[in-house]
Automatic annotation (TrEMBL):
Pfam family, any one: Peptidase_S78
Prohead serine protease domain segment(s): 23-176
Name this protein carries in UniProt: Prohead serine protease domain-containing protein
Annotated source species: Sphingobium wenxiniae (strain DSM 21828 / CGMCC 1.7748 / JZ-1)
GO MF entries: peptidase activity
Alphabetized UniProt keyword annotations: Hydrolase, Protease, Viral release from host cell
Length: 205
């Protein structure tokens, strides 16, 4: 039975990448180019480093899109912003497939370069940065399955080299879920208890 879990590290951010064709169209006469595509896909099972399988549930970004600003970046570089939701240059919406975006590329070197790179297919897909708010772990299967039910979205990124899935935050979350199911403290809490106990013993001596 799936085990509900919450993120043990509230600041833990993760990144995922998808390779799915991007499209480029004219924004209007004399108005540059607009990139469109998907930054995340729903109900698609992804292998995360061999540690677990992961899917993103439909509607996982609904709250985030309503409450948060989101930026479009080049290569995860916060100094290379090419679109922003609150500025109206980046639009994001969820549909049955996933998180769809439309980005009016700026008339800057990055924006012009991206238009060429997307057209040439040098940029094969997107990456996105998020923090999980609600999730479920199912350990009745091997490897375990993680379903992301709700997530804070921070960025979408154009990248020529989709990053290998990071696992540190997810592994801590799995450890936390297992500890909750067994009613025992996670490993980091056990380590803290042992350290406090050692300090007390030194004090007694």
């Amino acid at each position: 039975m799936p085990t509900p879990a919450t993120k043990p590290n509230p600041d833990g951010r993760e990144t995922r990448a998808i390779t799915r064709g991007l499209e480029l169209r004219a924004a209007g006469e004399g108005e540059g180019r607009t990139a469109t595509g998907y930054a995340a896909l729903f109900n698609v099972e992804t292998d995360i480093g061999g540690y677990w399988k992961e899917t993103i549930a439909p509607g996982a970004f609904t709250r985030s899109l309503r409450e948060r600003d989101v930026v479009a970046l080049h290569s995860h570089d916060t100094g290379r912003v090419v679109g922003r939701k609150d500025a109206g240059t980046l639009s994001l919406r969820e549909d049955d497939t996933g998180l769809q975006f439309s980005n009016d590329l700026p008339d800057t070197s990055d924006g012009r370069d991206l238009a060429v790179q997307i057209e040439r297919q040098d940029i094969p897909g997107m990456s996105f940065g998020f923090r999980t708010r609600k999730e479920e772990w199912d350990e009745t299967v091997d490897p375990p399955r993680r379903t992301i039910l709700e997530a804070d979205l921070f960025e979408i990124t154009y990248t020529a080299f989709p990053a290998y899935p990071d696992t540190s935050v997810g592994l801590r979350s799995l450890e936390h879920a297992r500890a909750e199911r067994r009613h025992i403290p996670p490993a980091h809490q056990l380590a803290e208890r042992r350290a406090r106990q050692a300090q007390m013993e030194r004090g007694i001596r």
